[in-house]
Amino acid sequence: MAVATILDPRYKIELWEYYFPLIYGDEAENEIQRVRDTCYEMICNYTSGRMGGEEKKKGGNIKLELEHYLEDDLMPRTLEFDILAWWKSNGPKYPTLQCIARDILDIPVSTVASESAFSTSGRLLSPHRSKLHAKTVEALMCAQNWLWAEIKGLSSIVDGIEANAFQNILDDSDDEEESGVTTLRESETYS
């Protein structure tokens, strides 16, 4: 995540230089240097994959590309800013960083879409696809159903089952062992 933030021309390393002292205290400088070293290592790996032996020997150019990028002014933080378009137009100036940005910034934040994670149409949630505990998913689904019921004007029905549903969830968590896989079925919803 640190590399992705550095590759965002609105933040670069300045975000880490602000937050790391708050998070790491006296170790902040070491952590910032570790992030820089990771960036240099990535640039070396990308460069060695793209270029022959002569270019690989020019390690100074690798550091210069990152340093020039970090020294350039930050872009304004606006909602309209398109980071991928920025890298496309500024790629010739930072060719290795552009390759890294294209690979890293293209990774989706989550592999489970929120609609499918909380869908009640029988989809499967497993530890591989979600870090949420089965009981947490069940509680979130109940909350989702209650909110939809309020929107649809069914809040009186919700009020009647709310206390029972939470008690059932608590009772189930006391009685069950963690199974690892939770199947969500239409019949388990409270709407």
From TrEMBL:
InterPro entries: hAT-like_transposase_RNase-H, HATC_C_dom, RNaseH-like_sf. The lineage of its organism: Eukaryota, Viridiplantae, Streptophyta, Embryophyta, Tracheophyta. PANTHER family: BED FINGER-RELATED, ZINC FINGER BED DOMAIN-CONTAINING PROTEIN RICESLEEPER 2-LIKE ISOFORM X1. It comes from the Eukaryota. Residues 1-46 form the hAT-like transposase RNase-H fold domain. One of its GO terms (molecular function) is protein dimerization activity. This is HAT C-terminal dimerisation domain-containing protein. Residues 65-147 form the HAT C-terminal dimerisation domain.
